[in-house]
């Protein structure tokens, strides 16, 4: 009997009289083109790696130094102070070289050494300059002479045309604050939240901690800061939080689901190609001068959180060429490359439409399989080991976990429709948790496509922070709308290629016991999701433009409005979390700003029953801005205390003070997601091309989670979450309280004498007499 075997590029049949071999010319061509593309990619990565590695110098500067050394030989000047002669006398195989050859080779070696020394000198000079943070504490619009000099030096030493990772080696390390400073700031932050007896007890615990184990724990952190790039690194895989990003608010480029997904996926592949090559421009702050760390961006694609019994790990792979698509309970494997290139948008549309047209049924246990990633981590880790470590289940799970990202083709339309409703509630909940089984929550992100053409992203939070995905999402939206575009019928531009191999179904053999675990995980996740009370709305009464006329930062304005809304909603003040970035440092991520300060409390009370509201607002806003700046520059509170706690756990010592600190609930958790990081779209010219951002769930069972996005000069979006099970919270009610608080604060600045009052406030000392506004 003859046996037929088919491989990728050829087919052969074994016959009694020999072997019949047939080559597929098209497949062989694709293999050849793929190889050429791979080598081209490696060459570009090598080139950009060299450019980033020698930055702020350039490879051409090596030639300049070599020419200078060679010229010195001919004019009989020795700038090396005899080192060239020493190298010449100690060269190996010097007996086989002429005198001139040895002289030239020695000059080149010395020039190379000098060039490398100058690179390190420039790099450490730039690192020293970037360690200067006084500029951030200066008043907006004012710049001291020392800051002007510093700014000029940074520009001088920063080189030209930096790539994404050019500044990485020049970024300073995150400093370890002193224990005394951290505890002092902590006690100051809880003073308005505790009565005298509670505060005295906390002071006693803090004193005992400083006198007993604080010094020992601090030594370990300082030691880690010497050998690690960031003393806080490694703790973020302990987090289990997810957030979302929504689509354009007012514009839907096409209502064809497959076409929109095709353009967006292609734009993501373009972004990934530039990311892998390091070709994106670095994110810069402070007049486009101070670079932000780009480390988090490395793990945007090809990344999955792997569950563990003790702790999870973040698995990042390279050069993944497929994605996995979920539609109506089925998982599909889709290749992203053909002939050594990305699939074109029209080709991706074809593939996604084929999946949408597929009428096959889910396999047993397949429909809700992804619910395992939404539930408790330990059962998922054990189930993964028991049922997904061999056979077809392992192959299919590996396909998901190694995919570039995960795409969910939903079958229910979502989006913001002002004609029907002015809220984002349903859309936001769909992005945040969906049906609890139609997102692979362990992937770095899940791209979500709706049948009405809307899109969105669900993001796993341990590998990176919200601005990182926001950076990619801005690029994708601009590329989709302004570069790729659609035909008049709403299809992707380009010819339709029907010769592509069809997407393939992932195969599963899931026994009844495993199906029961999946169902239990789904029910657990659904109970949590159903309890999320989410309200998203647009605040368009005014925006950043009018807030700036109040002589304060928009963030401080909104944070004080949140404090006022919280007090009106609950009747009490609470521990408040605001996320601040520390990306001015190597491998920096976030720090906490404790927004409920004594000054904020005084302002809120003044708003209810006092006449000096405006001055109290200005004092509170100045205090908040100072706290935010301290957090950004490495002088925060919570990451330091958390790391001390982690060290105490490793050493097996118990600290009542650290336990008490870390057990305090964040009843108000807030975060601002930055917009226009890339400035690819002028929203003054295209005001409709804006996104509402995204949100996250509440941290405390009886608290609120608030995400806000400042869009342009006249719009702010709020995403508010709480739990239905809490009788004390209501997201819609809190949203109305925020709206009223914003309007009430802005009303303080409507009098004709505002400017005079503000200027006088700048000369009034704060109550503690230590500083002025």
Produce a short descriptive summary.
By secondary structure, the chain is of the alpha+beta class. 44% of the residues lie in helices and 14% in strands. The chain contains 23 helices and 22 strands.
List the helices and strands and how they pair.
Blueprint: E1 3-6, E2 10-15, E3 18-23, H1 25-54, H2 59-74, H3 83-89, H4 99-130, H5 145-157, H6 179-190, H7 196-212, H8 214-227, E4 242-246, H9 257-276, E5 284-285, E6 290-291, E7 303-306, E8 313-316, E9 322-327, E10 330-335, E11 337-338, E12 341-342, H10 345-357, H11 377-387, H12 391-401, E13 406-409, H13 425-432, E14 445-449, E15 455-460, H14 466-484, E16 504-505, H15 512-530, E17 532-539, H16 544-548, H17 554-570, E18 576-581, E19 590-594, H18 598-609, H19 613-632, H20 638-651, H21 656-663, E20 668-672, E21 704-711, E22 715-723, H22 731-747, H23 754-761
Parallel strand pairs: 9-13, 13-14, 18-20, 20-21
Antiparallel strand pairs: 1-2, 2-3, 4-15, 5-6, 7-8, 9-10, 10-16, 11-12, 14-15, 17-22, 18-19, 21-22
Helix pairs in contact: 2-4, 3-4, 4-5, 6-7, 8-20, 9-10, 9-14, 17-18, 17-19, 17-22, 18-19, 20-21
SS class:
alpha+beta
The number of helical elements comes to 23
Shape: globular
Instruction: Please tell me how large the radius of gyration is.
Output: 30 Å
Helical content (DSSP H or I, runs of 4+): 40-55%
Low-confidence stretches are: 1-8, 752-758, 760-773
Largest sheet: 7 strands, mixed
Calculate the terminal CA-CA distance, rounded to whole Å.
92 Å
- Side by side, the strands of the main sheet go 4-15-14-13-9-10-16
- How confident overall, as mean pLDDT? 88
Count of beta strands: 22
Strand content: 5-15%
Subcellular location: Mitochondrion outer membrane
Organism: Amphiprion ocellaris (Clown anemonefish)
Membrane topology: Multi-pass membrane protein
Function: Catalyzes the transfer of the acyl group of long-chain fatty acid-CoA conjugates onto carnitine, an essential step for the mitochondrial uptake of long-chain fatty acids and their subsequent beta-oxidation in the mitochondrion.
């Amino acid at each position: 009997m003859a046996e037929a075997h088919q491989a990728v590029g050829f087919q052969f049949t074994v016959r009694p009289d020999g072997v019949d071999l047939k080559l597929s010319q098209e497949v062989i061509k694709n293999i050849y083109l793929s190889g050429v593309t791979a080598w081209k990619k490696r060459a570009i990565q090598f080139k950009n790696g060299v450019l980033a590695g020698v930055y702020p110098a350039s490879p051409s500067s090596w030639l300049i130094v070599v020419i200078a050394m060679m010229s010195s030989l001919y004019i009989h000047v020795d700038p090396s102070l005899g080192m060239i002669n020493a190298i010449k006398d100690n060269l190996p195989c010097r007996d086989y070289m002429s005198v001139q050859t040895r002289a030239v080779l020695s000059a080149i070696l010395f020039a190379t050494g000098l060039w490398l020394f100058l690179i390190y000198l420039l790099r450490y000079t730039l690192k020293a300059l970037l360690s200067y943070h006084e500029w951030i504490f200066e008043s907006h619009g004012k710049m001291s002479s020392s800051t002007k000099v510093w700014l000029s030096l940074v520009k001088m030493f920063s080189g030209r045309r930096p790539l994404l990772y050019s500044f990485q080696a020049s970024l300073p390390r995150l400093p370890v604050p002193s224990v005394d400073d951290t505890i002092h700031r902590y006690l100051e932050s809880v003073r308005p939240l505790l009565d005298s007896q509670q505060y005295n007890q906390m002071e006693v615990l803090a004193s005992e901690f400083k006198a007993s184990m604080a010094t020992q724990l601090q030594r370990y952190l300082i030691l880690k800061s010497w050998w690690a790039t960031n003393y806080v690194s490694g703790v973020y895989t302990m987090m289990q939080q997810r957030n979302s990003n929504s689509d354009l608010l007012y514009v839907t480029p096409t209502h064809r689901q497959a076409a929109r997904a095709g353009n967006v996926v292609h734009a993501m592949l373009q972004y990934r190609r530039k990311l892998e090559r390091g070709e994106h421009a670095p994110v810069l702050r402070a007049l486009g001068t101070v670079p932000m760390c780009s480390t988090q961006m490395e793990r945007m694609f090809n990344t999955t959180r792997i569950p563990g019994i003790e702790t999870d790990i973040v698995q990042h792979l390279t050069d993944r060429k497929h994605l996995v698509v979920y539609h109506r309970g089925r998982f599909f494997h889709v290749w992203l490359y053909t002939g050594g290139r990305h699939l074109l948008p029209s080709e991706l549309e074809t593939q996604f439409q084929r999946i949408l047209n597929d009428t096959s049924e889910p396999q047993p246990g397949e429909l809700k399989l992804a619910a395992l990633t939404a539930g408790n981590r330990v059962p998922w880790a054990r189930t993964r080991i028991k049922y997904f470590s061999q056979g077809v289940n392992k192959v299919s799970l590996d396909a998901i976990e190694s995919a570039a990202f995960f795409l969910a083709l939903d079958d229910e339309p979502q989006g913001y429709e002002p004609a029907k409703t002015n809220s984002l509630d349903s859309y936001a909940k769909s992005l945040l948790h969906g049906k609890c089984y139609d997102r692979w929550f362990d992937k770095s992100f899940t791209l979500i496509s709706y049948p009405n053409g809307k899109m969105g992203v669900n993001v796993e939070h341990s590998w990176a922070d919200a601005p990182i995905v926001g950076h990619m999402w801005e690029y994708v939206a601009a590329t989709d709308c302004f570069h790729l575009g659609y035909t008049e019928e709403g299809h992707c531009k380009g010819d339709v290629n029907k010769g592509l191999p069809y997407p393939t179904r992932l195969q599963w053999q899931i026994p009844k016991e495993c199906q029961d675990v999946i169902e239990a995980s789904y029910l657990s996740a659904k109970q949590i999701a159903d309890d999320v009370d989410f309200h998203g709305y647009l605040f368009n009464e005014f925006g950043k433009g009018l807030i700036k006329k109040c002589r304060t930062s928009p963030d401080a304005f909104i944070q004080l409005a949140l404090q006022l809304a919280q007090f009106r909603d609950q009747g009490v003040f609470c521990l408040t979390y605001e996320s601040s970035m520390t990306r001015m440092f190597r491998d920096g991520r976030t720090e906490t700003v404790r927004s409920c300060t004594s000054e904020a409390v005084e302002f809120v009370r003044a708003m209810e029953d006092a006449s000096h509201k405006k001055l109290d607002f200005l004092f509170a806003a100045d205090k908040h801005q100072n706290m935010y700046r301290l957090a950004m520059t490495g002088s925060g509170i919570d990451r330091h205390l958390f790391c001390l706690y982690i060290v105490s756990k490793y050493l097996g010592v118990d600290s009542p003070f650290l336990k008490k600190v870390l057990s305090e609930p964040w009843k108000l958790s807030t975060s601002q997601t930055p917009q226009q990081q890339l400035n690819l779209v002028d929203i003054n010219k295209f005001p409709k091309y804006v996104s509402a951002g995204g949100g996250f769930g509440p941290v405390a069972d009886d608290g609120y989670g608030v995400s806000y996005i400042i869009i342009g000069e006249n719009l702010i979006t709020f995403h508010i979450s709480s739990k239905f099970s809490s009788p004390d919270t209501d997201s819609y009610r809190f949203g109305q309280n925020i709206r009223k608080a914003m309007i009430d604060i802005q009303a303080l600045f409507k009098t004709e004498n505002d400017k005079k009052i503000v200027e006088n406030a700048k000369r009034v000392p704060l109550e503690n007499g230590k500083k002025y506004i």
